[in-house]
Request: fold
Amino acid sequence: FQLCRGVMGLCSGGNYSCSVVFSQEVMPTQMRSWNMFFLSSFWVAGGVTEYTTAIFVMDLNNGWRYEIALAVFPVFIMLVLMHFTEESPRYFVINDRKDDAMRVLEKILRQNGKEPPEGTLLVYDE
Reply:
């Protein structure tokens, strides 16, 4: 049980830092501050929901088990939704998939109302 709690804590903390980067990377410039506001608001709403459900559930027999089950439910939803998230262009470039990186970059440019520049994608090794 302790191991599962630890893994859940590490995953939710890691998810927050990754979701900020991924969501800001593909978000149109004028919407980034609103996106960050809503992303932070959902974390606060999740904490309030967790506290509220604990008030009602913890008095039950083995209520802590129900509380953990309710807390894990949104994680499973997030796990399913993450499969629909576009990979980072950087990830594609590192894995020598330049065509996929260009496809994602062009999609980001279209969402920002911009046209792709002329030329090809260059990758510099550090």
Summary: The first helix runs from residue 2 to 26.
